[in-house]
Amino acid sequence: MTTPTPVVGLRREREVLTVALVTGRHAVIEGPPGTGKSTLLRSIARDTGQEVVFVEGNAELTPARLVGQFDPSQVLATGYQPDSFVDGPLITAMRTGGLLYMEELNRVPEETLNVLITVLTEGEIAVPRLGTVHAGKDFRLIAAMNPFDAVGTARVSQAIADRMCRVVLGYQDLDGERAITSSVSGLSGKWVDLSVTLTRATREHRDVRMGSSVRGAIDLSLVLTGLADLRKEAEPSRETARDAAYAALSGRIRIVDGVDRTAESVIDELLEAHWPSEEPDAPETDSPESPDAEGKAPSPGHNPGFQQRSRPGREQPGRTQGRQQIAANHPSFDEVSPEPGELDVDAFDRLAGEDPEGAAALLADMAVATDVALRAAARKLAGRVFIRLGRVGPAKARGTRRLGPSRRLDGDLDLDRTLEAWDPSASRRPEELVTRTWTAHRRAVCLVVDISGSMKGLAVALAAVAAAGVVVANENGPPQLQPSVLAFGAGVKVLQAQGVRRPPEELLSDLIALRGHGTTDLAAGLREASKQLASAVADERFVVLLSDCLHTAGDDPAEALGGIDRLHVLVPLGGPEAEAAAFPLATRGGGRAQVVKRLAEIAPALTRILA
Question: C-alpha distances in angstroms, 296 versus 41, 265, 299?
Answer without folding.
Answer: 56, 21, 9
